[in-house]
Amino acid sequence: MADSRKVIPIEVAADDGGFFSLYESHQKIYPRTVKGRFATLRWLAVLFTQLLFYGLPWLSWNGRQAVLFDLGARKFYLFGLVLWPQDFIYLAALLVIAALSLFFFTAVAGRLWCGYTCPQTVYTEIFMWVERRIEGDRAAQMKLDAAPWSAAKIGRKAAKHSVWVLIGLFTGFTFVGYFTPIRELAGQILTLQLSGWGLFWWLFYSFATWGNAGFMREQVCKYMCPYARFQGAMFDKDTLIVTYDARRGEPRGSRGRKVVPSQVGLGSCIDCGLCVDVCPTGIDIRKGQQYECIGCAACIDVCDTVMDKMNYPRGLVRYSTDRAISEPEQAGSALSHVLRPRTIIYGGLLLGLIFVLLGSLTVRNPLKVDVIRDRNALARIVEAGDIENTYRLHFMNSTEHPLTLRVEVEGIDGIRISGPSSYEVEPASNRAVPVNVRIGPDASRPGSHPIRFVVRPEGAQASAHGVKRHDEPSTFIVPR
Q: 352-359: long-range contacts (C-beta < 8 A, 24 or more apart)?
């Protein structure tokens, strides 16, 4: 394999009067194409995640986009759910569930997220596939990059980057389509009426996709991603990781296919170097677990292919645990250690949070009411000596159907609403209305008194969509 790094000499004096290097610059890694069961799983993950990502914004639900985070209107649409800023607790719960899922799956099987579903991995796979189709396999790419510039080289490079840019533009467009109605966004782009901020974010995410997947690739995983740095804290000796069986493989060395390793004092590893050639981060799995390993299992696929050609058993490089490799006599099977205190705790917390979130969404009242007192006039005397307080009621309808709401007030004998008490609220919208509340002149002693606004939905349609009565406390001021 070509050296993946190149030393830049830095003039730093050594003790012997010479110089030594402090820095190394990156040189492009050329992963070899690999086939096998894990390569197939990776491409299935690519297909599933991209169908989900590119397809979701185009799905319709009740005449609008099924998944839309409308920041301008401050509403999030998730299929049948309409969430407001007041529902931030649900977003926080989803983030906690995502974090616990990452902890759980990492404790069970290492960096599965990185190897199969991380956007950096997915788009790197897509971009490398395009690169191989246009520039050829690993050897052809290395030869092309080393060749002097010519019309043929410029043509291939231009074609590759053209496809990359188109993928990046479509990816950026889709991403922005989760925050702006995607059909409107498409129309704005086609008619050249896209706003300045819309254009900025579209080009920003397009450039990020092109740069990260086309150029930075493993550098993002090795140096920019924080997950690579703290993953070690979530691993233990019973975590399933990509491992090299040194007991079986060492000492390594080349030999003919018909040579029995034990007869020449060698292990099963023929030192072909293919496990390094296929690694997208350029590491040698035979040196043990390294933070750069993203768990893609490409080395497993290629090593199994070599073992088949040599008529050796598969599994020299395999998913296993440190305990199963270092203590095979006592460890038992690797899968027998999946259920252990760490994974049970993570799994229990994860399931508990999921059930709490689903239960909360099930009993959630789609009607929200806020009551704000008019602080410009806490209380005033009106006709017939009645005492009046003014409030502002803010209704939020989280259903996609109109609601008729009747407002009542309780807490003081004879308390009543002066003026309209029934209001219409449009689907998935809010409405603020002023409400005047009165009591008789002798209904209560001076001071602050607790009251309660009762908002009742009317009609069978409200009940069918789970809209329930809402009580909101407030206070009524009686002047001295």
A: 353/93, 353/96, 353/97, 353/100, 354/97, 356/93, 357/90, 357/93, 357/94, 357/97
